[in-house]
Amino acid sequence: MKYIKDYTIKDVQDVYDGPGGLLWEAVMGEQIHSGGPAATDFLAQKAGLKKDMVICDICSALGAPAHQLVSKYGVTVKGVDATKTMIQKAQERTKAAKLEHLIEYYEGNAMDLPFKKETFDVVWGQEAWCYVTDKNRLIQEAYRVLKPGGKIAFTDWIITGEISKTELDPLYDTMSFPYMETFQGYQETLKQNGFKVLEALDQTEEYAKCFDDYYDKVHVELKPTILENFGQDLFDFASNLVTIWRKAAKEHKVGRGLFIAQK
Ligand SMILES: C[S@@+](CC[C@H](N)C(=O)[O-])C[C@H]1O[C@@H](n2cnc3c(N)ncnc32)[C@H](O)[C@@H]1O
Fold first, then answer.
1. Residue 81 CA to ligand 1 centre (angstroms)
2. In this structure, what CATH number is given to the domain that contains residue 242?
3. Which amino acids bring their CB within 6 angstroms of ligand 1?
């Protein structure tokens, strides 16, 4: 049985409209996922991105991965995100980078995409679907908006080992996650919704190494900035967060999965 907490889209919006978004950018970078631009290139190659493809980035946040995709692979991107602040910042930064003719942003919910069926060559996601309250519905939506033969390519924070509710509780509470999928769970959900799974990679080792980096950043390099800009409470929160997630990742209880599947 899945352990599900009652975090909603409103809780996620509170995080990313508030100091949480700034904190995540400071710790992880403008691409708010572990592994940064190299992880984006890796996923792009696995997805087989080609010039002129149309990509749907679900949970596009600050738009930094979209910048990389349009600049490097010659694609166009439509990003969807539920948080106003993220949409506004993404639009400003895309305009400043003079890429607004290649990227559009839509405020919306991953579970109810604002697009017609069979619009996209690739549905894309990086480390955000862990926030989505119904991942089956999200995968159904991805299938609907993909052209026949199109691919879904995503990474996400997942459960990779045996882990109890008591251990999951503080992890979910620090992140406002309703639940994480398991490595097998995502593959089953993809298959049940008509996808052919082409690749599923457990990237937990690399993910755990990223947490070493985040741990050091929070406790050394960023400590004065966090204390000055956000205060002691947020520093304590960030310190606890990186400590418990790093431990769970090193124990291979949680990690990162990469999935490529075809409609
Ligand atoms: C970790 S950030 C995403 C990082 C981004 N993919 C990247 O690699 O830079 C999480 C984002 O997911 C968005 N989000 C969470 N749940 C959502 C949902 N149900 N629908 C749309 N966006 C959502 C948040 O607003 C936030 O901007």
1. 6
2. 3.40.50.150
3. 9, 12, 16, 31-33, 59, 61-62, 64-65, 80-83, 86, 109-111, 126-128, 131-132
Q: 11 CA distance to ligand 1 centroid (A)?
A: 12
Helix 9-17 to helix 19-28 angle, to the nearest 10 degrees? 70
Residue span of the structural domain in which 94 resides: 9-262
Please write the tens of the pLDDT for every residue from 35-72.
Answer: 999 999 999 999 999 999 999 999 999 999 999 999 99
Instruction: Say how far residue 226 (Cα) sits from the centre of its chain.
Output: 23
How many domains does the chain contain in total? 1
Residue 4 forms part of a structural domain: no
Residues 6+ apart with CB under 8 A from 191: 197
Q: Note the pLDDT tens digit of each residue in 150-161.
A: 999 999 999 999
Sheet of 103-107: strand order equals 103-107, 76-81, 54-58, 120-126, 146-159, 254-262, 196-202
Q: Bridge partners of 126?
A: 155
Residue nearest to atom 12 of ligand 1 (CA): 59
pTM over 0.85: yes
HSE, side-chain direction, 13 A CA sphere, residue 220: 6
